[in-house]
Write a structure and sequence with these properties.
It is built from 9 helices and 7 strands; from the N terminus they run ααβαβαβααβαβαββα. It has 252 residues and is α/β, with parallel strands linked by helices. α1 crosses α2, α3 runs parallel beside α9 and α8 packs across α9. It is globular.
Amino acid sequence: MELTPVKEKIIWTLTYCILITLLWPFCVLLISIPLGQFAFFKNYLLKLWIKLSGRKVPAIPLIAVFASGAGSNAQKIIDHFSRDPTAGKVALVVCNKQGAGVLDIAQHHQIATILLDKKQFFNTDYYIGELKKRNINFIVLAGFLWKIPSSLIKAYRNKIINLHPSLLPNYGGKGMYGSRVHEAVIAAGEKESGITIHYVDELYDHGNIIFQATCSIDETDTADSLAEKIHLLEHQHYPAIIHQVVKLQNRS
């Protein structure tokens, strides 16, 4: 059976359209690699496929970052989730110190902020209501120096993550934060230190450990030089571990 020129043209056009439809996503991903946009286009194509297939688009987990200082870890967390917006979104920055650098970071990224009132934070459930009203799913502590009230822990059980600058259970507990930790580690003559990422419970630095990373301590190290090593570990690992926890819990 011979095909007429018109039928041949129709078949060729349909074949061409099918091939383009199948191949263009792979071409986009291939081109995006040298441009450094692979994650963005991968997520875009995934969302497009979900919509075309009629599947329900999963809700993006919303994260609140609690911080008290300059916000270097908060910045790294915001940057991480900005590169992969389907994994989660930093939707709120909560701070207990007026004028803290982390508030400027939040403003730069157009992220909502809450400046805590100490009496309300410790004596009422007001801020739990604020978090729930904003549909916050996870709380990440990034240099937040107040103890989390038990009522907030109960409201977000296994949804609050903390970063501690030592290898817990060593050098943790009340009053052990920042330079105090590094000074104690150096004074004890330790050969190794590191970071601990853990869930928050009602006790200081006590919740189940999620992840630890280590660094060596040289004879010439001081508390300041050790702090620099610890900061590198924090920036390297904290955003990625938060991502893993959020992804795992969002599946369940």
